[in-house]
Amino acid sequence: MNAPATQPRGPGGPGASRVVILGIYVTDLTFRASRMPLLGETIAGTAFKMGPGGKGSNQAVAAARAGADVVFCTRIGNDAFGAIARSTWAAEGITARVPAVADGVSTGAAHIFVDDATGQNAIIVAAGAAEQLCAADVDAIEADIAAARVFVTQLEQPVAAARRGLELARRHGVTTVFNPAPAMPFDDDVYALCDYITPNETEAATLTGIAVQSVEDARRAADVLLAKGVSTAIITLGEKGALLHSATQSLLIPAFQCGRVVETAGAGDGFTGGFAAALARGEDAVSAVRFGCALAGISVTRPGTAPSMPTLDEVTRVLQQAGEPSHVH
Question: Which residues are involved in binding K(+) (predicted)?
């Protein structure tokens, strides 16, 4: 896995809008039905679709379609699902950093149940080859990270790899965005490596012990995250929007209603990818959160995760229609 030489990150430089994302790719196997089956029960579904997924890969697609120069690091197998991954990244203009994987190691997959009536989802993820992501894989892309404006990672791959990415980004003065999903235990000193942390209500509750059922609950949970060392907490609240909370401001950014909700599985990834792309473009945090909310608002009106991500032009139109200023140059 050969990384390019470091490039400048200054305004207008080759790395000016670069986002490096560490995470997993899985192939989504999506089933739509009126309800979940009980254990031991078989029910008839209404639809099935296979497509690209995985939090990291979804965020990479969202950021690339939002105009960022994206480098994505993961592990995949030498199999049919791995071929789908490579063709997805090529089509989106994403630079893939993928170490060689031995035959017999499978690419990850996800079972996604989508409720026909509400678009709500339940997901089982098997990371496959990406379970082998390690700190050495991240060290191999240090030059990519150093050349970026924003580094993003999550918790679908091993914590040690995520931590190493955050450490390297901090070393090189790169803005860090940590999406702690799925929420799981990690050492508290990781929080201090986070310029931004982007949990949803459930993840915030798991990390802080505070049930997030209102905006005020979200503020209390965000205060706990700040006390642990995070610079800014952004708690995504579904149809309520997203709470941007730091030591100097606490602002609820409303959600964008862009049509009937079809599927919510990609919304969080769309938000994080869009937020990162906007930061890399030089937008301030408030504008970047608005951009992420608009992107997510469009994505939930479409089926799929990565396939649901809108283009930069689509997001810009939604912002303009809502009377929000456009920062796209």
Answer: 265, 299, 302, 304, 308
Flag whether 267 is marked binding.
no
What total number of domains does the chain contain?
1
3-class secondary structure per residue, 88-127: HHHHHCCEEECCCCCCCCCEEEEEEEEECCCCCEEEEEEE
Point out the catalytic residue in the list 69, 144, 195, 269. Answer: 269
Per the CB < 8 A criterion, the answer to whether 267 and 228 are in contact is: no
Please tell me whether 274 is known to bind a ligand: no
User: Does 173 show up as a binding residue in the annotation?
Assistant: no
CA gap 95, 9 in Å, rounded: 17
Angle at 311 between CA 165 and CA 128, to 5 degrees: 40
160-199 pLDDT per residue, tens:
999 999 999 999 999 999 999 999 889 999 999 999 999 9
Q: Which CATH number do you get for residue 103?
A: 3.40.1190.20
| pTM metric for this prediction | 0.89
Residue showing tokens 């009106």: 301
β-pair partners for 50: 29
CB of 88 closer than 8 Å to CB of 52: yes
In a domain, 288, yes or no: yes
Ligand-binding site membership of 308 (annotated): yes
Residue 246 belongs to what domain range? 18-38+45-321
